[in-house]
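lol ok so funny story. i was supposed to be doing the assay writeup but got distracted and ended up predicting the structure for this chain instead. priorities right. anyway since i did it might as well share w the group, maybe its usefull for someone
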Amino acid sequence: QVQVVESGGGSVQAGGSLTLACADSGDNYNTYSRHCMGWFRQAPGKEREGVAAFGRDGTTRYADSVKGRFTIAKDNEKNTLILEMVDLKPEDTATYFCAGAVGYCDPQADFFPWGQGTQVTVTA
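and the output, tada:
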């Protein structure tokens, strides 16, 4: 039974936009909305990089590499976490994961992924 559906990934040219969505029908969203929710990405051969975090108080934080270009949002009615990405760059190419964490909420949090991730490819 699929509980997490991640969508919105794809291939775009540099400067393009994508919006990722992570819809959870299980317990992840309800559990981590009381702590910290976010997105991290991982490219082949590279370490995992947290990109955005949404705290329970509504505070949002971003990695310097995406600040001003990415926006994290949530839809509580649909238990969906969203990542809006504009002005994409080739270095944004990675698999993106929605995730939850406890403790201090920022992109460096120890995130637990909810799903299999969605691929984003940005070509020059």
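The first helix runs from residue 28 to 32. The chain has a mean pLDDT of 95.
back to the writeup now i swear
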